[in-house]
Specification:
Helix content of chain B: 25-40%
Number of domains of chain B: 2
Number of strands of chain A: 6
Order of helices and strands of chain A: HHEEHEHHHHHHEHHHHHHHHEEH
Number of helices of chain B: 12
CATH architecture of the largest domain in chain B: 3-Layer(aba) Sandwich
Bound molecules: adenosine-5'-triphosphate, magnesium ion
Number of strands of chain B: 14
Structural class of chain A: mainly alpha
Number of domains of chain A: 2
Oligomer: heterodimer
CATH class of the largest domain in chain B: Alpha Beta
Largest sheet of chain A: 2 strands, antiparallel
Number of helices of chain A: 18
Distance between the termini of chain A: 39 Å
Strand content of chain A: under 5%
Strand order of the largest sheet of chain B: 6-7-8-3-9-10
Strand order of the largest sheet of chain A: 1-2
Largest interface: A-B, 28 and 33 residues
Shape of chain B: globular
Strand content of chain B: 25-35%
Distance between the termini of chain B: 64 Å
Order of helices and strands of chain B: EEEHEEHHEHHHEHEHEEHEHEEEHH
Helix content of chain A: 55-70%
Chain lengths: 420, 303
């Protein structure tokens, strides 16, 4: 007991000095400042939503958000057939008003301002009544109240149409069944509410997570390679703990840095955006927003938030571990810093090749963890041992396991380094 | 308390830096003397477990030092030739950090750090950042760092490089006091350092130990004798072609040469007592005055 306590104390002393090495570096301080700055700017963009007032003028700021919230709250509640009929009627009323028909920009802006309360639902109508891969902005305008009853059924039937025609060869029968059953098990009617806070949060989350990852890559790469560039390696590796606990302290420092910096940036971003825009709609299904209408993951906004936070963390941990391993192997921070850059940017280049196999591989690359809000909308399916799974659960498990493997490998690799 | 090296060889891709060295060291100061590239640093790195030998073994009291792992490192203090540090750490923080990776308890660490800073004359600079220190000051911190764990084996790769003369003297005295109950191995190019400090001298050349012993022993076994001879200026070049010359001095009536030779170079030559400088020249055959010297080529141009 006594000895174990002192081990812990010793390691935490070494960790303290390792952190000191990291934070005393000017480059690292600048990197953290950049992260803070970019997070701030992203918050600004995420929180910047506008509201067109009854005079047709576009406004922004807290008052605009309050107005938008008020307008949408009037339509919040169960999105059942009756509500949908009313939305269709209201939309028609606005669209056929003299203001909407007018060529005058201001007049049509005034008409637009009336529609902001039903704006989100109107987008869902477009999704529902268009073919699976289409989106016609004016589709809602030609609907009649009688069609409201097929609103939810359309979601399933257009998926089925798509699966039997355009995407016929893209999925196995089992996968098609899986998709359809996921669609069918989505609870309807939706509960609908103002949820701009979540929508904006999700849209810009990948930016924050990726910038955090790039900065983290820079921070952690130095933990291992800088002993070589400073030439302090000889003293380090000849010290009593130089090939075991001091190495462990380095790994732990990397882990702590990733954890602290990631959650600091992420929670700062979340805190600002949600405080400003509100947490209303936390319990709504993500399919309530037109961007996620087609998602086959049946979760709520609150759950998506947790998923983004967790997957971003796992992604950052994995990529940082890989970056640390490369820095330990090559003794070069420059090569190590390239790891996150390559992992983040290369997939988006390859993404232009449209082949199902390439997509299947891309769907499992670690950058997906950093952009969970997009990954939730992709149709990446995998059949493992006869069971069909979406990419998201695989990503979470796969990269947790890989990180669990990488860290001990890193420890061994560094503990055996030669100096000469 | 015995460090034994058997048939130790280190091959790099295209060259053998250490070839088949066998050696036993106990307490005392061992001075490793050799020209640039002789393999001193490579040998020391292997003794510090930083490099794995290609062949051969290193044992401490009959245990392989690589399998001893941290038990061996506990005994070890090392000052590398290119001593690196954390530029933004203060001297005090640096030493406290090294103490932590050496496993010293915080109380001991503080105590040792303070004492060593006094001993190497760095107490006043304890709060200075490492990157702001002069070269000699860094080396002093390096020596302090090596001593932190109160090591049984102290390996110092060119510890006096960059020290000013008074600091060198101080350092020699420090080593002398430290060398009790310790094995100290130090490398240097400065012959006088070795003469003062080392009990045992190891002459290293091309990766091998050419000769080993106290300075007395080595001097008495020197293959050549040392002579002084005063010659007219125009004969200097002729002598330099034929003999190893360890010193040239202009005196009234000509030039006095200090010549290494197995036989009397001239009937006027006077037999002298050899010094370590002469010994160095005898083994490494490199005269500071080289064989193609400026005077000679200048003379050819004139003719
Ligand atoms: N890591 C390495 N890879 C390849 N060759 C090396 C390496 N380290 C040293 N050498 C070579 O091994 C030889 C011995 O080098 P070493 O540094 O041991 O000499 P040294 O006696 O310490 O010289 P100096 O007095 O200049 O410090 C040199 O020729 C050097 O170029
Ligand atoms: Mg050397």
């Amino acid at each position: 007991m006594d000895i174990r306590m002192s081990t812990k104390v010793q390691v935490s002393r070494m960790v303290k000095y390792e952190l000191k090495k990291v934070f005393l570096r000017t480059g690292n301080r600048v990197a953290l400042l950049v992260l803070l700055l970019v997070t701030g700017i992203t918050c600004f963009f995420a929180a910047n939503i506008s509201y067109v007032n009854e005079n047709g003028e576009s406004t922004s700021g807290p008052a605009a958000i309050a107005s938008l919230k008020k307008a949408q709250k009037e339509w919040s509640g169960l999105l059942d057939e009756e509500t949908l009929r009313q939305v269709i009627a209201e939309n028609r009323r606005i669209r056929t008003s003299p203001e909407a028909m007018s060529d005058n920009v201001r007049e049509s802006n005034i008409a637009y301002s009336w529609g902001q309360g039903i704006g989100e639902i109107r987008s869902l109508l477009n999704c529902s009544f268009c073919a699976f891969r289409e989106y016609d902005y004016y589709r809602a305008d030609s609907l009649t109240e009688a069609e409201a009853s097929s609103f939810y059924a359309n979601r399933i039937s257009s998926l089925k149409d798509w699966l039997s025609e355009e995407a016929k060869d893209q999925f196995s029968e089992k996968e098609k069944e899986y998709l359809i059953s996921q669609y069918e098990s989505l609870e309807t009617p939706f509960f609908c509410d103002y949820m701009a806070g979540w929508r904006q949060l999700f849209e810009y989350a990948p930016t924050v997570v990726m910038i955090t990852m790039l900065v983290l890559g820079y921070l952690v790469a130095g933990i291992f390679s800088s002993e070589f560039s400073w030439k302090s390696d000889a003293v380090f590796f000849t010290s009593f703990y130089g090939r075991d606990r001091a190495v462990f302290a380095k790994v732990k420092t990397g882990f702590l840095l990733v954890t602290a910096v990631y959650f600091a940036a992420f929670l700062l971003y979340t805190g600002i955006v949600l405080t400003y825009l509100g947490t209303d709609g936390y319990n709504c299904a993500i399919q309530n927003s037109w961007g996620s209408w087609k998602s086959f993951y049946n979760i709520t906004n609150w759950q998506e938030f947790l998923l983004i936070a967790l997957s971003g963390y796992i992604g950052c941990l994995f990529i940082s571990s890989l970056s640390m391993l490369v820095s330990a192997k090559t003794k070069s921070a420059v090569i190590a810093v390239m790891v996150p850059v390559v992992l983040i940017f290369i997939p988006s280049f390859i993404g232009n090749i449209n082949s199902p196999l390439v997509n299947k591989i891309l769907g499992l690359l670690p950058d997906q963890l950093l952009q969970m809000s997009s990954a939730l909308n992709y149709f990446n399916l995998y059949t493992l041992g006869g069971k069909v799974l979406g990419a998201v659960p695989i990503l979470l498990v796969l990269y947790s396991l890989l990180t669990g493997i990488l860290l001990p490998v890193l420890y061994r690799e560094y503990g055996r380094k030669e100096v000469g | 308390m015995e460090l034994t090296v058997k048939n130790l060889t280190k091959e790099f891709k295209d060259l053998t830096a250490v070839r088949g060295i066998s050696l036993t060291m106990t307490t005392g100061v061992y001075g490793l003397l050799g020209v640039n590239g002789a393999g001193k640093t490579t040998l020391m790195r292997m003794l510090c477990t930083l490099l794995r030998p290609t062949h051969g073994s290193i044992t401490w009291d009959e245990q392989d030092i690589f399998s001893m792992d941290r038990d061996y490192r506990r005994l070890l203090g090392y000052l590398p030739q290119d001593f690196g540090y954390y530029p933004d750490f203060t001297v005090y923080d640096y030493l406290m950090y090294v103490a932590s990776i050496k496993g010293l308890r915080p109380v001991t660490a503080k105590h040792r750090t303070k004492a060593l800073l006094e001993q190497v004359g760095m107490a006043e600079n304890a709060r200075k950042k490492m990157k702001k220190l002069s070269g000699g000051m860094k080396r002093r911190v390096g020596i302090a760092q090596a001593m932190l764990g109160n090591p049984k084996i102290l390996i110092l790769d060119e510890p006096t490089a960059g020290l000013d003369p008074s600091e060198r003297i101080r350092f020699r005295n420090l080593i002398s006091t430290l060398s009790e109950e310790r094995l100290v191995l130090l490398s240097t190019h400065i012959v006088s350092d070795i003469a003062y400090i080392a009990n045992e001298i190891l002459l290293m050349k091309n990766g091998s130990i050419e000769a080993q012993g106290t300075s007395q022993e080595l001097l008495s076994h020197m293959p050549e004798q040392v002579w002084t001879l005063t010659v007219p200026r125009d004969q200097v070049n002729t002598y330099m072609h034929h003999y190893k010359i360890s010193n040239i001095k202009t005196v009234p009536g000509g030039t006095e040469l200090r010549i290494l030779s197995g036989t009397r170079p001239s009937k006027d030559a006077i037999l002298e007592n050899a010094t370590l400088e002469d010994l160095f020249l005898a083994y490494f055959g490199e005269s500071p005055y080289g064989h193609t010297n400026v005077d000679e080529s200048a003379g050819e141009q004139d003719g």
